[in-house]
Amino acid sequence: MLNFITWNPDPEIFQIGSFAIRWYGLLFASAFIVGYFIMQRIFKHENLPANLLDKLTTYAIIATIIGARLGHCLFYDLEYYMSHPFEIILIWKGGLASHGAAIGLLLALYLFAKKYKKPYIWILDRITIVVALAGCFIRLGNLMNSEIFGKPTTLPWGFIYTRYDNIPRHPTQIYEALSYFLIFIFLYVYYWKKKGNPKPGFMFGIFLILVFSLRFLIEFLKEPQVAFETDMVLNMGQLLSIPFIILGLIIILWPQRKKHLFIKF
User: Which of 67, 102, 107, 212 could form a disulfide with 241 if both were Cys (CB 3.0 to 4.6 A apart)?
Assistant: First the structure.
């Protein structure tokens, strides 16, 4: 008899009246806090002012939240939010999309680079380190919420999400979290191995290829997130990953074009 893992944690750490602290929110916030300290070390190594990092962090937080929320509303439930537009701002009710966060962050960092006269590719190369780690934290948050899980499995590490059913399933949140953590380790080690002077565009390109290729593959093991994905050959997460993979390949394989795209405004 296989001994599967029964999973039924309380998503809330504690509650006082109507106010509750949830594991997802704590992990989401922790991603920014840990990322800040990592970027602080990078900025210190490159003799950059701390106030510039504070401004970069502000851009990143706002862009991530807005982009993730709009991404969910537009990509996964457009019909509903067109009929209930006010609910778009109700972030605490759930519904964030990582692809939307990626698009929002790319746009915000472009504006940051233009305003503070920093090469766009320089910012992208360094921010990927902490974004990879943030992806790990967020997927662990999904695990604590017993959401975004996989299809049924007979593997011994299958999780039984009792809040959903009693069938052992792939713990796809753990698959993704581990993948993102390994990508973070690789990028972090590579940055310091190059003594803070990596080849422009390499880290960002590799990040896009690895993160979204792994996301594309792991999606095959996931249950559909929304009803319209049920009959799709490739789900929405996979379709949205393809452009990011292609962009990563372009950045890695076409260095001269990369220079014009990202360094000059």
Answer: 212
